[in-house]
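<context>
A single protein, sequence plus fold
<sample>
Here is the protein in question:
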Amino acid sequence: MKPTISAITVTFNVANLLPGLIDSLRTQTDRDFEWIVVDGNSTDGTVELIKSAGDVVTHWISEPDFGIYDAMNKALQMATGEYYLVLGADDRLNPDAIAQYRNHARQSDADIITALISRNGIIEKRKPCWPWLYAHHAYVSEHSVGSLIRRSLHKKFGFYSRRYSIGADLLFLKKVCSSPETKLIQADFVAGTFGFSGTSREDRAGAICDYFRGQLETEKHKYFQIILFIAKVLKNARSMIKATRSGR
């Protein structure tokens, strides 16, 4: 029996980005999936776009939430697939992505299948297996687009933490992937394009702090993580100051 797949997307005022994601889902060679969209009460036309995509949207809601991961947890509770795939409004799937993910899940029965992704035109896979340095990217290419995740893992490891505004995916994936009971495989296909307009790119200071918190919570050598944190702050200082001055 072939594994079932849910795609989940959380949105808030992304009417300028969502059409591209909708098109990439419409062009899938395997259309046997459900798409759950949880919107944070958008006012820019996002809801109207979701309504117009009834041929690919299975379930959707639009209501206030407590951030990205609160909305993501809502989507997971609505989903019915054995596996799920996170997609941001600015992400794009290649036409054979769902088919490829399903095929690898069926053949391997893995808990997480991580694929290659395109980022700024460069094909990327997971980093060397040094979680102390690369965090969750030592296991997966990316949380969104690049990872098909068995939904039942949340029963054992919990849902995405609302204590993290940006980095709850890091915390969840590190806990899951570092468990000896978790079966993870690297699939040799490009799932799609990872978008760069999300919160983690716009709020570099917040992303770096959440990354640091997640590493402190999951790594033994705390002082080394402090050194890495300082290095990242210095490396990104100019862009963080520029963002502050521009009002972001």
Summary: DSSP finds ten helices and nine strands in the chain. Residues 222-245 form the longest helix (24 residues). Residues 6 and 79 are 6 Å apart (CA to CA). Residues 203-248 form one domain.
